[in-house]
Amino acid sequence: MSMFRLRAVTGSRYLRSFLHGGAANRDYVLEQLGICSGEDQVLEVVGKNKAKLTVNHVGCAIGMLWHFQKEKPQMLRTVEFIKSHPEFLTLRVLAENKIELMDDVMLVDMLYNVLRLNVEPYDSLAQQLVSEAWLRLYRFPMPSLSKFAVCLSDQHLQHSPPMGQITDILDQKLSSIDDARILTTLMVSVSSLVSPHLRDKLINKADHLLDTMDPSHYNNPRRMVQFLRNIKYNYRPLLEKCNHILLRNVPHLNAENISIILGLYQSMQFNNCDFRLAAKQRLMELVDSSADPFSFTKLFVALGPMAGEDTKERLESTALLLAEDFNAQQALAVAETLEEIQCRNLNLIQKIASVVHKNLHVYKPMEIARITQALILLHYQSPELFNKLRNILVQFLLDSVYPYEVTMLTRVLSMLPSPRLDESVISRVEAVLPQCNLNDLNTFAMAVAKWVRNDPSYRHSTPSKYVRLLQTLNRCGHERLRKADRLDLVLEELKYMSGEWFEEMLLEETMVTLQRLEDQISWTNVPEMALFLTRTNHLCTPLMDRIASVAMENINKIHYSATYATLLPFAVLNYDPPRVDELFDICIQRVIPHISSFDPHLLVLLAYALAVADCFPEDLVREIFNVNFLAKLDSQLETLPDALNKRVRLRLMELNRAVCLECPESQVPWFHERYCLQLQKKGNGSISPVQQQIHKMFGEVLGGINCARVALLTTYFYTVDFECVLDRHHQAVAYSEQSQLQISGDGKVRWGSDSVGKDRSEVPPGAQRVAVDFLDSKSFCKNSRHMKGEAMMRKRHLEILGYHVVQIPHFEWNSMELSTQDAWKEYLRKKIFTGLPSST
Fold it and tell me: CA 558, CA 578: separation in Å to the nearest integer?
């Protein structure tokens, strides 16, 4: 056993020099260290030889202490025991006194090891080691340079001058680096400081090293993905190459590694189907062996959101058994996962909340914010706990000097029911606003809106303290947009912007800024710009023309999967740029050779967007509507978040309907009847007061309420707001009583016998079905009366079903011109009878 231990630690260069030094140079202290089989023996040797310890002895002893810890599972490590041991204090004092005697490699190794042994960054030893390393920085070998960069990151010194110098050295010596581990470690460490030029150089080098490295070293591609995540650059060629290597390694990954990779992918919105399916299978294999708090927590975080109901119940049962053994961090991780999977196991939630309650003193500011948010969204009820959390949040907020921290703490604080807000909190928020980006300002605006609504004095007027805060928010937002000079940074800040404040106060200014910077639109940011315009529903033709032009010129540089985002605003906003047919054709041609490489859910979303634009590529339709593809899609959807799962299933139904109606020659069957019936049952079946008002007047215009039907379900499950049948003389035909849909007093619809429009033969010869649709604001672009693509597609489909379609825009119905009953009736009369086919 002693010989085995000796071999295990001979990786130390100090022990190597001893073993090869010969009898004349024997070092008996190193010999004693070399036969140690555990931390206690190392510390015992140190205690017996305090007066003899040289710099090599100190370096070797501390290195061995970390080596023994590293070899143990996390739950069996005894770092705190070592840290508090008197002989470890001796080693620390000796190390600090001998820093100048350390060579470059030993110096960095010493810093790395003491940080791993939980010596605080503010400890004098750690600070002296950092200072000395900074002085020697430019002579470090690359392995030591990368290790020192990790140490700086561990101490939250990513933006420090030494890290800036490391970035400069990396730029100068990049061509000489041929070790993927060294390169990727440096990439992650300096990610907050890289320029676009250095970013591209690093990506090219990383791409080259992926081809030459041992593919079993999965941490290298994992760090490359982490680098892309850190710099917020979704470079798909490198991302997919990394994913390919990670996918090959899934059978050897543990739950922690899988959880890390899935977290990186999620933050980059990279839902790779093959990896998720392989990861789920691997995690299921690990369920039985993950019975301790540490391994189970990692498994639960990774598998919980992807698991089926039976597996979730099993995981929740295990969590309930282990709950009392969870530490503070494990309880936080489990609570967030319970919120993500929308757990309703009250006993488990109570147990986890109890562990959290006991550990409130342990959590850092962002952790307190996360745990508070999770408990709120889990609908946990405990006034005592939430009152404590509120007090802690307020104190952390008042003490924090980091804008991102103040933003998160403020957002979560606004989620809590609370009395009047302290002036000190408002003052702290106001002080940090000038340092905030657009997304943070938007978060503050939503928090202020909640505070205003919850303030008892709001019923009379908006309190002046909130008015002042909103004025500062508006000023800071406008100033930030006017000073912006880099489009990529603006788009990054706008990525998750939404809500009333943004739309009312900043959206117009944002469009002015984007048009001012439109020369910076390039193939790299076209997808992001297109997604922003789609999300805001804002029709800005100069920007969309520019997107179309750049896309057509650079289509081969744009990743094939990004064609979905690129085309989306043109379909959704129903805008045809110059050469629109060429734009769609060139994008489709970019996609077709890579159809089999698309994630199934993304291919469905792309095909639906094309269908909205009345475009049905034959290859795409054939690929999606085959048994193998649909089976793979089903498997993938089981691993996706619930909201995305539901959205993709809805889009598949709508695509199926569009293909059946507009491409009957493709012979795709309609297979969503049961799905639509389930959706119908889940719906509340109610109609709005406006619809009831129109229905009543509609009946008066047609000559009787029995001449109009409301909320009619057509074939393929479109819901028509109102339907009537006009004979060849344009006279309304009355419906039979049993086919009438009745409206109850609360607006609920009771379905008649013909609710799905199956019997079309009842229409008299020469008669015309008329569908009247009320179009609310969602059917139009935000900044104009331009109708969106889905409303146009719906009109096409109803016409194919045999309807004459009458659309009533909300801005016409609610206009000043239609302020009387007679005016509304005349408006309906013109809408219904104008444009009807002439009688035969």
Answer: 20
Cα separation of 194 and 199, whole Å?
6
Give the C-alpha distances (Å, rounded to integers) separating 233 from 182, 190, 448, 591: 21, 15, 32, 22
Spatial contact of 699 and 721, defined as CB atoms under 8 Å apart:
no
Residue closest to 376 by CA, chosen among 366, 365, 390: 390
Q: 633 CB contacts (<8 Å, ≥6 apart)?
A: 600, 601, 604, 648, 652
Kindly tell me if the per-residue pLDDT of 11 is higher than 70.
no
The Cα–Cα gap between 405 and 424 comes to 16
Name the phi and psi angles at 618, rounded to 5.
-60, -45
Q: Are 418 and 388 in contact (CB under 8 A)?
A: no
- What does the pLDDT look like over 318-329, one tens digit per residue? 999 999 999 999
As a whole number of angstroms, the distance between CA 453 and CA 795 comes to 40
Are 143 and 186 contacting, i.e. CB atoms less than 8 angstroms apart? no
Residue 68 CA to residue 39 CA, distance in Å, equals 7
Mean pLDDT on 668-681: 93
Average pLDDT value for the chain: 90
Candidates 614, 602, 620, 513; CA nearest to 565 is 602
Residue 266 vs residues 191, 270, 272, 279, 450: alpha-carbon distances, Å: 19, 6, 10, 14, 29
At 340, list the tokens.
Answer: 């993500």
CA dist 704 and 688 (Å) reads 21
CA 308 to chain CA mean position, Å: 21
Pairing of strands 719-726, 709-713: antiparallel
pLDDT at 738: 42
Element (H, E) at 635: helix 627-637
> Sign of the CA dihedral 629, 630, 635, 638?
positive
Q: Judge contact between 102 and 62, C-beta under 8 A.
A: no
Cβ neighbours of 643 (radius 10 Å)? 8
Report pLDDT for 754: 42
Helix axes 383-399 and 403-415, enclosed angle (nearest 10): 160
- 682 burial (CB, 10 Å; 0-12 / 13-18 / 19+) is exposed
Q: Which residues pair with 713 in a beta bridge?
A: 719
pLDDT of residue 753: 40
Are the C-beta atoms of residues 624 and 603 closer than 8 Å to each other? Answer: yes
Grade residue 3 by pLDDT with cuts at 50, 70 and 90: very low
Do the Cβ atoms of 133 and 95 come closer than 8 Å? no
What pLDDT does residue 761 have? 42
Tokens encoding 637: 């959807």
Give the integer Cα–Cα distance in Å for 805 and 787.
15
How much of the chain exceeds pLDDT 90, in percent? Answer: 75
What backbone torsions phi and psi does residue 784 show, to the nearest 5 degrees?
Answer: -160, 180
Quote the CA–CA distance of 274 and 248 in Å, as a whole number: 10
Measured CA to CA, the distance from residue 761 to residue 741 in angstroms comes to: 19
At residue 786, does pLDDT exceed 90? yes
Give the mean model confidence (pLDDT) for residues 805-834: 89
Tens-digit pLDDT profile for residues 102-121: 999 999 999 999 999 999 99
526 closest CA partner among 598, 438, 483, 590: 590
The percent helix, strand, coil of the chain (3-state, each to 5) is: 70, 5, 25
Length of the chain: 840
Count of CB atoms situated within 10 Å of the CB of 143: 14
For 826, the token pair is 């005349």
pLDDT digits (tens, 9 = 90+) for 558-608: 999 999 999 999 999 999 999 999 999 999 999 999 999 999 999 999 999
Contacting residues for 665 by C-beta, under 8 A, at least 6 apart:
none
- Taking the whole predicted model, whether its pTM rises above 0.70 is answered as yes
Measuring CA to CA, how many Å separate 257 from each of 222, 227, 246, 302, 305?
9, 16, 10, 9, 16
Q: What is the mean pLDDT of residues 505-509?
A: 95
CA distance 752 to 68: 76
